[in-house]
Amino acid sequence: MASQRTFTLNTGAKIPAVGFGTWQAAPHEVERAVETALRCGYRHIDCASIYRNETEVGAGIKNSGVKREDIFITSKLWNTHHDPKDVESALDKSLKDLGTSYVDLYLMHWPLAFKSGPKFFPLDPQTGVFQLSDTPLADTYAAMEKLLKTGKAKAIGVSNFNIRHLTELLAKCTVPPAANQIEKHPYLQQKDLAEFCKSKNILLEAYSPLGNNQTGEPRTVDDAKVHEVAKKLGQDPGQVLVSWGVQTGHVVLPKSVTESRIKSNFNDETLPEWAMKELDSLERHKRFNFPARWGFDIFDEAGVETVKKIAQEAGEENKTKFVV
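Structure (tokenized):
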């Protein structure tokens, strides 16, 4: 049985500890998956405009029969809408697609801006390199703060921010972020960032809590140790990782389009101390999601020159891979 645990945002609002992720879910698949998740008991749906499936997510919500006020919905501002004048219209588009008049949480998806325009992935027509913008993050966030007065967003926050990004933002913002959504699992625990966010009353949310197949490498959920722990507990490996995340103290956002996995991922339980220690020991600072080809050292880990080189080398491929 799911624990139905919740966390409390710095706004005072309750947020379900286990949410349903919709990243990398095809439109028709995600409609059925969201409906299934809500019928299974999920009351937290995590969305984003860049997932390009919010219309179908909205249909799934409607088909579930669950009342809007009983669901915690998150959406995210994409990189091409960081210009302050574009922020509210971006949210309006998500609201229209989702079929709702408000979101419970609206996040700045990444700590960098792309060139404004109709394309999700603006590229230099000659080189294929991503076109970035120098719009300050604080200016974008200030525009997000204004959304709170409209009632279209009940809370605002960020995603993929490290300690430096947060420190700089906190020095300038009026409303501290309610949440910071990051990649987090036993392979990438980010304990320093977790402690920093806790000290600032910013709730962490974990995307890809099972790892993901972005790199084609074995995921965290495929680890032999995870399977060993799961077998001893009589649980599914994904269920164990979800439980680890909630017990560690952050929101967990598993994603699946398979009904059995949707159900098992939702059944988080309290793990014994020995199991938590076994999973904690898997730390290897392994990121599955680092879009270096954007040409920006997002996490201050790869180096400016390294990502610039990667961006230039990826230019030709970008021209056919990023056409929307």
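The mean pLDDT is 96. The chain is about 40% helix and 15% strand.
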